[in-house]
Amino acid sequence: MFICKKCGKVDNFNLMFNPEYKGEKNIQKSIDKNGNIHITTDNYTFIPDINFMNKHAVCSYCGSIYCWGISDR
Ligand SMILES: [Zn+2]
Predict the structure, then answer these.
(1) Which of 6, 12, 40, 56 is deepest in the core (most CB within 10 A)?
(2) What is the CA radius of gyration of the chain?
(3) β-strand 37-41 against 2-4: which pairing, if any?
(4) How big is the CA angle at 32 (ends 29 and 54), to the nearest 5 degrees?
(5) Ligand 1 centre and the CA of 29: distance in Å?
(6) b/e per residue, 41-70, with b = 16+ CB within 10 A?
(7) What is the whole-number distance in angstroms between the Cα of residue 67 and the centre of ligand 1?
(8) How far is the CA of 22 from the centre of ligand 1 (A)?
């Protein structure tokens, strides 16, 4: 799980992408039984890491970008 360092919310289901993200916009998200986010885009599935988050993910609570840390919650 990732935590927004700006507002302190742990974002799991509501992950959004930076509008400047140049990749495929047809994105599906799911959560596995261990609580990890899986992102599927064009039949390619991956687990986003903190580096990916800080390049592409927008906090859906406060709208901040490049603001992610790791949460073990
Ligand atoms: Zn936030």
Answers:
(1) 56
(2) 11
(3) unpaired
(4) 50
(5) 19
(6) eeeeeeebeeeebeebbbbeeeeebebbee
(7) 8
(8) 22
